[in-house]
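Is this the right way to post structure tokens for a design question? Let me know if I should format differently. Anyway, here goes:
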């Protein structure tokens, strides 16, 4: 009886070790980027597929850093639609976030929360005060310290936030 239990435990241990080795191997495999589908840049179709019309602009893919390929471990831990991985994130912060740095994870949560608050404010200004996208952009740039040089791009983003709200 003890012999059978011992054999079962050894077999179970071997199975667990083999499973971990397989998971480790998969995490180091290189895969096509799930955000840009290997192109190295995000286009309107990618943005629509990931339902980020109100969050992203077209451009270099910050999930794969423009390479079109990522490790399986990244796919397993970071969703392709993670909005924190964007063009305003510097290279060092991106590397730390991808590695799972706790401080960067907290910054990502704060970023996502403040972005959602700003989107709610935009919708409020549009629906309740009937401000145009340009007026909303002017107001938020003044209040939030956003560089005036980003005005045109910010207006486009405000328009996308409003359009996404109107689709809902």
């Amino acid at each position: 009886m003890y012999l059978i239990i011992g054999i079962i435990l050894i077999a179970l241990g071997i199975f667990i070790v083999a499973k971990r080795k397989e998971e480790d191997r998969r995490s180091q495999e290189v895969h096509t980027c799930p955000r840009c589908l290997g192109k190295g840049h995000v286009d309107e179709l990618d943005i629509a597929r990931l339902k980020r019309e109100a969050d992203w602009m077209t451009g270099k893919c910050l999930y794969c850093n423009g390479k079109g390929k990522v490790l399986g471990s990244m796919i397993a831990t970071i969703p392709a639609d993670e909005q924190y991985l964007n063009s305003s994130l510097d290279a060092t912060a991106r590397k730390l976030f991808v590695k799972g740095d706790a401080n960067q994870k907290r910054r990502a949560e704060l970023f996502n929360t403040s972005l959602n608050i700003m989107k709610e404010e935009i919708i409020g200004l549009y629906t309740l005060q009937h401000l145009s996208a340009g007026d909303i952009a002017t107001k938020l740039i003044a209040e939030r310290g956003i560089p005036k040089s980003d005005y045109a791009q910010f207006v486009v983003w405000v328009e996308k936030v409003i359009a996404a709200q109107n689709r809902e």
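Format looks fine. Someone answered above. Worth noting: The radius of gyration is 22 Å. The mean pLDDT is 87.
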